[in-house]
Design brief:
Length: 294
């Protein structure tokens, strides 16, 4: 039995005070949005409770599907690195970027500089997709992060990365691993067009042809479960989690994370999903336990 914990979109708060020179381009609207609305949603005390509960479950590995930051200020990447270090060692914690982490064109360099140990291959090769092998799992880290204009939160994988994902899925299948695709944007979503994954349809083709055991995502800040078509009539669960810092009673689902207990072998995998999240009383509790595979 191997246990993988998945959390997403912590949107670390408080937001460091930006310098005037840093409030350029999209950061201006992002900063106003944070001051008006988002700072009331993303609560560091809530995130601390989620992290403490997650640690008490002693998962074998932790996956984080992006949006550690808010407007991609340099100080936010440093804070993100410190938060990751407190969460676990780079070997145990796998991270991919979200759209807020690549908010501005220069953010990609800061992601790489601060977070690379958490989002590189075991031989420290950087770039996307990257692969990590943990127990029976093959984790595939995909980036959908491209800077977008103000009011847009779209993602793009790109043809080069999609081709590499297809090859990787085949390779990990040959290695008899339980393939977990980590991606910030959902491959299937009811969210507005300006938030969508632009080449989701190509990713769906790749999964339909090459298969995967599990797709984990964030971005919509909601509990989500969509079944994607896999090869030969199989179905692949795509599961999203709320923001790990979302206060209870706001517009989206309150903070939660998912645990996946994975066992078995190719053709006979089992996977039980346990959702644990914050309730109205402010404590973290089990909210759902469901066998999604096997
Ligand atoms: Fe987010």
């Amino acid at each position: 039995m191997f246990t993988l914990a998945h959390l997403s979109d912590p949107h670390l708060a408080p937001l460091p005070a930006p310098r005037w020179s840093e409030l350029i381009g999209k950061r201006v609207t992002g900063y106003i949005n944070w001051q008006r609305r988002r700072r009331f949603i993303h609560d560091p005390a809530v995130l601390a409770k989620i992290v403490a509960d997650l640690k008490s479950q002693s998962p074998d590995a932790i996956a984080i599907t992006g949006d550690l930051t808010n407007i991609a200020l340099p100080q936010e990447f440093v804070a993100g690195r410190a938060w990751l270090a407190a969460l676990g060692a780079p070997a145990d914690v796998t991270v991919i970027p979200g759209n807020h982490d690549v908010y501005v064109p220069e953010a990609g360099v800061m992601v790489d500089r601060q977070w690379r140990p958490y989002m590189s291959e075991d031989d420290e090769t950087a770039g996307f997709p990257f692969v990590r092998r943990r127990g029976p799992l093959g984790l595939i880290g995909v980036s959908t992060g491209v800077p977008t204009p103000p009011f847009f939160a779209t993602g793009l994988i790109g043809n080069e990365q999609l081709a590499a994902v297809a090859l990787t899925l085949d390779q990990l299948k040959a290695e008899k691993l339980f393939r977990v695709v980590l991606i910030h944007h959902p491959p299937a979503s009811k969210a507005a067009r300006h938030k969508r994954l632009i080449d989701a349809h190509i990713l769906l083709h790749v999964i339909a042809e090459h298969g995967a055991e599990l797709v984990l995502h964030g971005h919509d800040h909601l509990h989500m479960l969509n079944w994607l078509d896999g090869p030969n009539g199989t179905r692949v669960p795509a599961v999203g989690v709320p923001s790990a810092s979302a206060a209870w009673g706001m517009s989206k689902d309150a903070a939660a994370y998912n645990l996946y207990a994975i066992d078995g072998a190719p053709g006979a995998w089992t996977c039980e999903m346990i959702s644990r999240g914050i309730g109205s009383a402010g404590t973290v509790m089990q909210q759902r336990r469901v066998k999604i595979i096997g």
